[in-house]
């Protein structure tokens, strides 16, 4: 295989950036993710790629629920805060204020572009990232000026 071509082509797949939040048994997850796509209209399903060796994946497997907070195009600095594990302090995570989501009371960052509240319907564990299939249960659109795209940050993830 042409490794260089494979890496470059996989990195060219367009991705927005999101902050995923979840909680289970006193453990919290709040992570920047980029591998997400819609997978079904009825029911409304999305698919995420989540590092299999991460705290986020451990929490997701236990929780079965999460919120996907959409980052606005000017929120690169916020995305960077969630590259490493951070814990909530009062009603903030990494200094970002949140409110509880309507259904599962998970962190929603209302100053971001919007969010989806989801429940996991399947997990495929194969490779260094697990594939998480989730049904969208709730959604809210806050700011629709544009999303933060991985390609606009100068960062690479993939390949």
Give helix and strand order, one letter per element, not per position.
Answer: HEEEEHEHEEEEEEE
Give a quick account of the main beta sheet: strands, pairing sense, barrel closure: 7 strands, antiparallel
CATH H-level superfamily: Electron Transport, Fmn-binding Protein, Chain A
Q: So what's the CATH class?
A: Mainly Beta
The N- to C-terminal Cα distance equals: 13 Å
Question: How many beta strands in the DSSP annotation?
Answer: 12
Any low-confidence stretches, pLDDT <50, length ≥5?
none
Architecture in CATH? Roll
Layout of secondary structure:
Blueprint: H1 3-11, E1 18-24, E2 27-33, E3 36-40, E4 45-51, H2 55-63, E5 65-70, H3 76-81, E6 88-89, E7 92-93, E8 96-97, E9 99-100, E10 107-108, E11 114-125, E12 129-141
Antiparallel strand pairs: 1-2, 1-5, 3-4, 4-12, 5-11, 6-7, 7-8, 9-10, 11-12
How does this model look, in words?
The protein is α+β, with helices and mostly antiparallel strands. The protein has a single domain (3-152), classed as Electron Transport, Fmn-binding Protein, Chain A (Pnp Oxidase, Chain A, Roll), CATH 2.30.110.10. It has 3 helices and 12 strands, in the order H-E-E-E-E-H-E-H-E-E-E-E-E-E-E. The chain has helices spanning 3-11, 55-63, 76-81, and strands at residues 18-24, 27-33, 36-40, 45-51, 65-70, 88-89, 92-93, 96-97, 99-100, 107-108, 114-125, 129-141. It has a 7-stranded antiparallel β-sheet with strand order 2-1-5-11-12-4-3. It has a 3-stranded antiparallel β-sheet with strand order 6-7-8, with no helix packed on it. The two termini are 13 Å apart.
């Amino acid at each position: 295989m042409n490794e260089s071509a494979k890496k470059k082509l996989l990195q060219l797949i367009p991705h927005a950036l999101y902050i995923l939040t979840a909680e289970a048994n006193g453990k919290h997850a709040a992570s920047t993710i980029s591998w997400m796509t819609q997978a079904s209209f009825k029911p409304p399903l999305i698919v995420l790629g989540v590092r299999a060796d991460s705290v986020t994946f451990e929490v997701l497997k236990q929780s079965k629920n999460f919120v996907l907070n959409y980052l606005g195009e000017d929120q690169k600095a916020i995305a960077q805060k969630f590259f490493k594990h951070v814990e909530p302090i009062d009603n903030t995570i990494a200094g970002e204020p949140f409110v509880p989501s309507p259904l599962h009371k998970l962190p929603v960052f209302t100053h971001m572009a919007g969010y989806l509240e989801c429940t996991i319907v399947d997990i495929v564990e194969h490779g260094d990232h697990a594939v998480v299939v989730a049904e969208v249960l709730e959604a809210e659109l806050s700011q629709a000026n544009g999303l933060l795209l991985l390609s606009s940050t100068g960062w690479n993830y993939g390949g």
